[in-house]
Amino acid sequence: MSYKIIKLKKGKDESLKRFHPWVFSGAIDRMPDDLEEGETVEVVSHEGSTLGVGHYQVGSIAVRMLSETAGDAIDEAFYAKRIEGAWKLRKMLGLKRTDNNAFRLVHGEGDFLPGLIVDVYGTTAVVQAHSPGMHYARNAVATALVNNEELGVKNVYYKSETTLPYKAQLDPQNDYIVGGFDSNVAIENGLKFHVDWLKGQKTGFFVDQRDNRMLLERYSKGRKVLNMFCYTGGFSVYAMRGGAEMVHSVDSSAKAVALTDANMLLNFPGDARHKSYAEDAFKFLSDMEADSYDLIVLDPPAFAKHRSAIKNALRGYQRLNAKAMEKISHGGILFTFSCSQAITKDQFRLAVFSAAAQTGRKVRILHQLTQPADHPVNIYHPEGEYLKGLILYIE
């Protein structure tokens, strides 16, 4: 298979030889004038040796590499093979069971399909493209999903209106590529959740916190739990099952709070231990009385989506954690997270350390958390490790 050629500057092929999946625009020496966004290209070294093929796009990341093999055809068979490989890993992990049918099937670079996210909720797969190339490949991806009989996907919903580069002028429409609406109730570790892939954040549910929610359940018995930035109420539902004395869920979005209440109704109808509040997180923490809660969850949206926002984001994490540490009961447990890819583990830990020092309380780290195994990190692409978390014991 022959593609248009992008030639790199001298010495700029080292990262690809180390299997990093991105080519930055500054590394390019020459490329055709008629290249279009999303086109598959062949990348060659300055000396002319083939380094692989990938999707071209305008911007800092100019090529997302799909294969190191010269002349590899990026066609329906290619996507079917990659999705089959992704499914084999999830099958090995035992993620599709009678008590669990919600999981991430494709995690971009971690599954050797950069720019593509696929989350499965029962018989529906939600596909998100983060690159023009994957936008154009959406039908091939959908075909591969429904043709995998073991996977059991009947409906494929495409949801990329907010994830594709706006400058590419692709005008994606969120809609079903295959099938239609079936049921929006997914099962995670025996608990039921409404998943709003039509209007919700991301693909409708944060499957990346599944393992961490299980850990919270273990710590919840007899505790007064506060779940900040609750969104769908995932942590709240697990805390209820864990035997919490009471659970309060807070989110600034009234729609999110309504979704939390709906999920609570699915699992614990009429249980008076739970209350929800549509209120700003910082205001709620500032106004609440000290010692009201002895387990607090801080799982905010990404404070830094770009490197330019890192400084302000770190201030935000420090302020948020300091406020929670000030108010939490003695012997309290704090689950605190950052999902900002631009923030490193060390930066997040330093922000939390600064918050602890500000309060003067004794704080010990019980667990250091990350994303689950269905969000694998390509060892040659450490940027894929985006979720950072700490469980702290506060005296």
Strand order, largest beta sheet = 16-15-14-17-18-20-19
Beta-strand percentage range: 25-35%
| Main sheet: strands, sense, barrel | 7 strands, mixed
Counted beta strands: 20
Rg (CA only): 22 Å
Any idea what the shape is? globular
CATH class of the largest domain: Alpha Beta
Give the mean pLDDT: 95
Which ranges are low-confidence, i.e. pLDDT below 50, for 5 or more consecutive residues? none
- How far the N terminus sits from the C terminus, by CA atoms, comes to 64 Å
**What is the assigned CATH homologous superfamily of the largest domain?**
Vaccinia Virus protein VP39
Helix content: 25-40%
From the 3D structure, determine the CATH topology of the largest domain: Rossmann fold
**Tally of helical segments:** 10
SSE pattern: EHEEEEEHEEEHHEEEEHEHEHEHEHEHEE
Number of domain modules: 3
CATH architecture identity of the largest domain: 3-Layer(aba) Sandwich
Structure class: alpha/beta
